[in-house]
Each structure stands twice: as C-alpha cells, then as structure tokens.
Automatic annotation (TrEMBL):
<dbReference type="Pfam" id="PF00579">
    <property type="entry name" value="tRNA-synt_1b"/>
</dbReference>
<keyword id="KW-0436">Ligase</keyword>
<keyword id="KW-0694">RNA-binding</keyword>
<feature type="binding site">
    <location>
        <position position="39"/>
    </location>
    <ligand>
        <name>L-tyrosine</name>
    </ligand>
</feature>
<comment type="subunit">
    <text>Homodimer.</text>
</comment>
<protein>
    <recommendedName>
        <fullName>Tyrosine--tRNA ligase</fullName>
        <ecNumber>6.1.1.1</ecNumber>
    </recommendedName>
</protein>
<dbReference type="GO" id="GO:0005829">
    <property type="term" value="C:cytosol"/>
</dbReference>
<dbReference type="InterPro" id="IPR036986">
    <property type="entry name" value="S4_RNA-bd_sf"/>
</dbReference>
<dbReference type="GO" id="GO:0005524">
    <property type="term" value="F:ATP binding"/>
</dbReference>
<dbReference type="GO" id="GO:0006437">
    <property type="term" value="P:tyrosyl-tRNA aminoacylation"/>
</dbReference>
<dbReference type="InterPro" id="IPR024107">
    <property type="entry name" value="Tyr-tRNA-ligase_bac_1"/>
</dbReference>
<dbReference type="InterPro" id="IPR002305">
    <property type="entry name" value="aa-tRNA-synth_Ic"/>
</dbReference>
<keyword id="KW-0547">Nucleotide-binding</keyword>
<feature type="short sequence motif" description="'HIGH' region">
    <location>
        <begin position="44"/>
        <end position="53"/>
    </location>
</feature>
<keyword id="KW-0963">Cytoplasm</keyword>
<dbReference type="InterPro" id="IPR054608">
    <property type="entry name" value="SYY-like_C"/>
</dbReference>
<comment type="similarity">
    <text>Belongs to the class-I aminoacyl-tRNA synthetase family. TyrS type 1 subfamily.</text>
</comment>
Amino acid sequence: MASYKSDLLNLLEERGYIHQITDASALDALATKQVVPGYIGFDATAPSLHVGNLVSIMLLRRLQQAGHKPIVVMGGGTTKVGDPSGKDEVRKLLTSEGINANIASIRTAFERFLTFGPEGQEGGASDAIMVNNDDWLSKLGYIELLRDVGPHFTINRMLTFDSVKLRLEREQPLTFLEFNYMILQAYDFLELSRRVGCRLQMGGSDQWGNIVNGIELSRRIDGTEVYGVTTPLITKSDGSKMGKSVSGAVWLNEDQLSSFDYWQFWRNTDDRDVGRFLKLFTDVPLDEIARLEVLGGAEINEAKKVLANEATALCRGRAAADAAAETARVTFEEGAAGADLPTIAVAGGSIGLVAALVQAGLAASNGEARRKIAEGAVRINDEPVRDDKHEVVMSEGSIKLSLGKKRHALLTR
C-alpha cells in the first residue's frame, strides 16, 4: 500500500477508492498545501441516482472529510448529448424541463452525503457546491468550440479510448452527437478550473480517458496543472454490477425505492464483500471493519446488519435505518409482518397472485412470477402457493406476500 503525505490520498487509499492517479506525488503535495476543489460529473437521466453511482458520491464525501471542496457537476448540458461509456445503444434524449426536474430531485440525495454552503452565499472553503454544466455548454458557439478546443483533439487518439473503441468493436452505432461527449467533458474541467479553481476530477475507471483529455486541455490552453483520480470498477463477488438487484435498480431516492428495500439490499451482501463495502459505503472506523470482516459462520450476519444500518443511515437518515432494521427483525426473527414492509393497496376484493407479485416488485414480469410460483418460492402468510391462477382474497387487515425467505410485501385493502 502506498504511503502518502496528505490526509486525502491516505484516506482514499486506506478505504479502497484508488485505481489510477495521473500524478500522485504532485496531487499529494498540493493536498498538503491547500484546499483542493474536486469534481465528479453526474448526468440527469432519471429522477434519482442509484447504488451504482454511490462510490462516486462517497468519493466526494471523503474529499470533504479530508478538508477539501466537493463540486457536484450536474450534466444538464451533457445529458442532452449522452455518454457512450459502457453503452451499446444511443440513449433517449430528454427535454430541458425533464432534465431540470431530475436535477432538483437528485440534489436531495446529495444533501444527505455532503455539507453544502448556504444557498446563494459564498460558504466555507470546504463547503460542497452543485453546478450545472448547461450554464456554460449551452452558451458555446459551434465555430468557437471548433476553433478553440477542436485543435487539441485528434480523431486517432479519440478512437483509442474504451468508450469509443469497445462500441465500434461490437459494431454498435456511435453517433457524432455521442462522439462529442468526451470533448464536452474535457471542456467542463477547463471551465471549472477557470470558474472555481477546480484542480481535481474524479470518477470511475471507465472515465480515465475523459479525465486525461480534460487534464491535457487545461494544460494546453491555460497552462494549468490539474489532476485525476479514478476508482476501481465496483462489482460484487459474483461478478454482477453494483446498482442492480433482482427486481431492478437500487435507487437512492426514497420515492423510487422504500428504505426497507434499500436496507435489505445491503443486508443481502455476499459474505466476501462485507469488509470492502463497509470501507467504501459507510463511515465505520477501519479498526471496527477489521473486526467485523473476519467474522465467520452465522456471525457474519451481524456484520451485514451493521453494513445495512450504516449505509441506509447515510442515504435515508438514521430513523429510516432503525425502522428498516426493526421491520427486518420482526419479519425474519419473529415471523410476523413488519410495519415498514413495502405495501400494495388492492382495489376491490381480490387480486391475482401473478399480478400481486409484479405490482409488489417481487417479480419483474408475469412470466417470472409464474416461474417463481411453480418453483414453490411464493408464500401467502407463510403458506406456500403453487397455483399461478390463485386469487388473493382480501379481508380485514393485511396479507403478507413472500418470495423466498428474504423478500416480502404487504397487501392491504
């Protein structure tokens, strides 16, 4: 493990965030001398970010914990173009109104993780700020961009970056619109350097090429030395991507996913991932993590509960985490139906079992629901049901619908 002089790089290294650094010694020296403003960009393609974005959010949190300034760049402009990184197809383009509504919704999640300065005021040196790259990108003239920025990019070089190369190798279309994305992201770094003295861009390992482009553009046009840090690609031990669960994306905003389901996502972490995820996604001290990650057998479940409690408290607040933990305890340890379970209101006196599973989010489709019923994985009030034509007849009170041992919902009238 590398040894750094700055609190920033030591913190990032100890907790497993560092994959690549463009000039580690120079960034380390800078971070010991001054507050380093650093940014990560987030496109506003949905009303909420998901767990796949969480390592980037935590990276900004660590930056602030080490005394530096987080800059959240919302891609109001770049969302209109679409990042080709890791994509096999052209992304649906949103209206300006839709993008702005998404940005307002996404900000509420960031306010859980970062300390922002007073609205409209200067704020402290390490207070987080949120900016929208549409503020400068939408004002760029096309000829101006071609003349001032275009000469610093070669097509030869751009074709070598994974975001472009992999798409072409798979013979998937890459539009000229998307091809320009890396130029716009590089320009973001230049503009942030000028506007707010930004000296650091961070992101996932798939953003390395885009970050290097921004560093080179700032150096060539302004002679400014700026830096880049990327995180490893965060996958689960089974090889699947972070951010997805059996029933879909694990959203950060509560109106997109219940706190119980969010808590349960972390509680279901693979034994092999518990220590790593505690370091990345919670503020639990490293010595406590070292104790928890070596627990074996049934005791590892206690570590998973700590992970679920602390990750949920960061994202949803301590009260929501405690309520989710109590619901899980009542549901799993006492066999009753916890009050905080996802609840589906049934109109009329009954609902088909297949429809109930889909509406409750326990199955992604009617076909999946029928398969689970046939496998004997579905229970009503803890009694197995194998008939996919079964009608759930509602009475007073609620009915507990279960898929397997760990996923539950309540049906109410």
